[in-house]
Amino acid sequence: MTKKNSMATKTDQELEKLLADMRAELRTERFSAAGARAKDSNAPRKLRATIARILTEQSARVRQAA
Q1: How far is CA 25 from CA 5, 18, 55, 60, 61, in A?
Q2: What predicted TM-score, i.e. pTM, was given to this entire model?
Q3: What is the pLDDT of residues 23-34, one digit of tens each?
């Protein structure tokens, strides 16, 4: 998982790519969990937390630019 400090060092393009990757991973995690028991039951929670960190950093940058 990525720490909050490292989110601030990433560029806007890196954050967008990371966000897309995390959302895709969460989507596959959700649908794979429907059929069988998941290996890591906390994986969706960790992914959602990382997505929230990315979105928070993006909105902070928008507020700072305005």
Answers
A1: 22, 10, 16, 24, 25
A2: 0.83
A3: 999 999 888 866
Integer Rg of the chain from CA: 14
Residues contacting residue 47 through CB under 8 Å, at least 6 positions apart: 22, 25, 26, 29
What 3-state DSSP class applies to 11? coil
**Residue 5 structure tokens:** 């400090």
Are 55 and 26 within 8 A, CB to CB? no
Question: In the chain, what are the domain boundaries?
Answer: 4-65
- DSSP string computed for 32-53: HHHHS--S-TTHHHHHHHHHHH
